[in-house]
Amino acid sequence: MTISGDVGIIRLTRYLRRLIGFSLLVGLLPIAVLGFFSYSKSSWDIQEKVNEANSQLLQQTQMTVEQTLRMIQHSAIRFANSPLVNTSIDRKLTPEDFRLIDDIQTELAALSVMEMETFNSYLINIDNDWSISREGLSTAADAISTEEIESYAGLPENAYWVSGATAEESGTSGQVSLVIKVPLNFSKPKGLLVIRTSSQDINKLSLKSKRPGSILLLNEHNRVVAGDDEALIGKDYSEWAPMMEIESKETESGYVESRMGGDLSGISFIKSGYNGWTYLSIVSIKDITRESRVIGWVTLAMSLSVMLVTVAIALAGSIRMYRPVRSLYDLSASVSDALEPVQRNAEEFGIIGERIKRLGTLQSRMSEQLGKQVEQLNEFFVMKLLRGELGPGEIGEGLKRFGHVLDWKQVCVLALQIDTLEHTAYDEKDRDLMLFAMKNIAGDLTAPEERLSTILTGQTLMVVLGGNLEQESAFKDHIYQRAEALQHAIKHYLKLKVSIGISRTHPCLEDLPTAYRESLEALKYRVKLGFESILFIGDIELGAGRHAYPEQLEQRLLDALKQTDAEQAHLLLNEWIQEVFESESRLDEYQLSLVRLLIQLMRVVQESGESLGMMDLESKSIISKLFELSTKEEIRQWFTDSVIDPIIKLLDEKRTAKHRSIADDVLRMIREEYDTDLTMESCADRLQYHPSYIWRVLRKEVGLNFSDYLAQHRLKVAKGWLQETDMTITEIAEKLRYNNAQNFIRYFKKMEGVSPGKYRDHIRNEEASRA
Predict the structure, then answer these.
(1) DSSP assigned state of 675
(2) 588 vs 764, which has greater pLDDT?
């Protein structure tokens, strides 16, 4: 596509299209935003003013209605407290009391309100069953139904408004009643003063002012008391979605929106604290925003006119600004190897920038490769230096080659290791990445002039530091500060706990192999101090003292293990580990103590006759695994989970099997020799166990002791003989080794509820009846 300009034809390239598009965007976007904002603002302001006016009219309606209701209630309470009512309420009135009735009728008529056409008032005596209204004296049931009287008298309030639009009342739809108990403040009133008006009268009070939309008055049960449409009176709005939203709000008044009949409507509401009624004003949003739509059309017309002018200016300006860019592109193409034609969707700046970028990328790649190679060679040089693989001449040559100018008087090595990845955001696969991040942090926190290198070897980060301080103690303090700063930075940025081993201070780089080994050796003492330790090898070895092995704790632990007492074994293991690591000893002595305990525990398994292979304790890596543990807690957990608990489970299973076998042997003897003088002592002697042990095994496995099980088995045999043989009771007692027949009879009757003879008769009678 091409555009004709004042100096020729301009091809519509990609860059030119972008330039025109940007110009249009800059010119048209503010106009569109301004037009939209003007329309939205005017619509919002109009809607806010209408809502505010509706709210004020709704408040005015509430005040008008409630002022009238309060006036009626005030007059009614004054009448209910008058001497005339108090003297007459206790009497049983008859037509002969016409003077008193006439006075009450006069007072009741004075309670009426001019604005209300359907206004009736009743003074009702509940006990004497009479009612006085403007029609005269009648029974209470003639005035108001008995159900209503009982309902009104049972409510807790002394004076209250009720609406006939409630679900509980029948035959009173469209009525609003004021009920006052007489006398007041009596839990069980003698009478009621009931003043009734209609929903139409309430409508006259609430619909005095002209307003947009409609008004609804809902009682405390959310049924319509009054409204523009009298057909709605009595309708239940409890399940109406806007009403449920209004009920959920804690405010006494407010505004909600809801879709009604397909149109969005605004609903202003006021919850009355006087009688629990809710006043609603419902107005269609479409009617409210009618004027704002006219403003919108005017705004749209003006915006489109301005947009057309802006488009013309954007096109002309973009073409003029594009000409220098095209000239620059043609110039760059002329100095390249071959003239590049402008293809469809080609962008001039992209082609020019691509040539420059290609040169810059090539230069950066070469610099990066050289930098990586130098860095890797430097780390390789330092690693060989730490391992003692370089001579003095090679050290000096390497320092010069990699640009290290060192005049240090002191040098030392720091070894950093991650304590644990448990309870962190990382898994074991993230360990190498975290070590690399630690390497970067160490490089940032140490100045180049005091650091030879930071290198990773296995799971350890090695940092070689040096200095020129006059006193060795000052250098040591400086190194400790550096180690502490590293530890805090890693914990802050990576959320990891690390421990640091620090070598002794050495005077020259030739001593770095020794310092390297010392830092790793110091780090091993973390097993005593726990996580996040900073360990100087010199301080650790100076503190080494005589090691005392806790033999008594070990013996108690082994006894608990043999008794399969897991809780006691765990407690004794904790005490043993605590006592071992409280002593100031060398690392190899701690390790020897751990190995000795492990061997003693393995010996318990062997003495039980089981194979160590069942618990994977014969693995060649078991000692290596033990030495890899870093802290007392890890050692305790490993011994608990991998050694002690499996041994207890193994011994407990073996003991259970042994008890089952012993119990089976004893029960077999009872079943086979029940008619002999069999005793628990004779069984124990034959099985070569102590009688008390036999007694405990039977109680555990069978739930009965020896004598109870023997007696129950003999009873079972006796029941079979009574049913199947003609043996006498005495013969059965003698055969079952009872001292006399009476003892057998008493035991049989105690267990079965009947004597042996009756039991035999009962069984044989049942068999005869079945035959």
Answers:
(1) T
(2) 764
Mean pLDDT of the chain: 77
- The residue among 482, 474, 485, 450 whose CA lies nearest residue 464 is 450
Say how far apart CA 135 and CA 120 lie, in whole Å. Answer: 10
Model confidence at 488, pLDDT cuts 50, 70, 90, reads very high
Angle between helices 706-724 and 680-687 in degrees, nearest 10:
110
Give, in order, the Cα–Cα distances in Å from 769 to each of 130, 760, 763, 766.
79, 14, 10, 5
Location of structure tokens 């010199």: 538
Alpha-carbon torsion, ordered 250, 256, 259, 264, to 10 deg: 180
| % residues pLDDT > 90 (the chain) | 1
Question: Angle at Cα 637 formed by Cα 636 and Cα 642, nearest 5°?
Answer: 110
When pLDDT is averaged across residues 476-490 and rounded to a whole number, the result is: 89
What are the backbone angles phi and psi of residue 136, rounded to the nearest 5°? 120, -160
Using CA atoms, how far apart are residues 150 and 154, in angstroms rounded to an integer?
6
Q: Can you give the pLDDT at residue 6?
A: 44
Residue 513 preceded by cis peptide, ω within 30: no
Task: Specify the residue for token string 């469209």.
Answer: 174
Q: Where are the beta strands (DSSP E) in 433-518?
A: 451-457, 460-467, 498-502
Per-residue model confidence as pLDDT tens digits over 745-762: 888 888 888 888 888 888
What distances in angstroms separate CA 33 from CA 299, 307, 373, 620, one per listed residue? 11, 12, 56, 78
pLDDT digit string, tens, across residues 195-232: 888 777 777 776 655 556 778 888 888 888 887 777 77
Tokens of 351: 């082609």
What distance in Å separates the CA atoms of residue 175 and residue 171, rounded to the nearest whole number? Answer: 9
Please name the residue ranges forming H helices in 81-175: 83-88, 98-110, 140-143, 146-154
Angle 290-334/14-80 helices, nearest 10 degrees? 160
Structure tokens at 406: 């060192």
DSSP 3-state assignment of 270?
A: strand
Structure tokens, 556: 């108690």
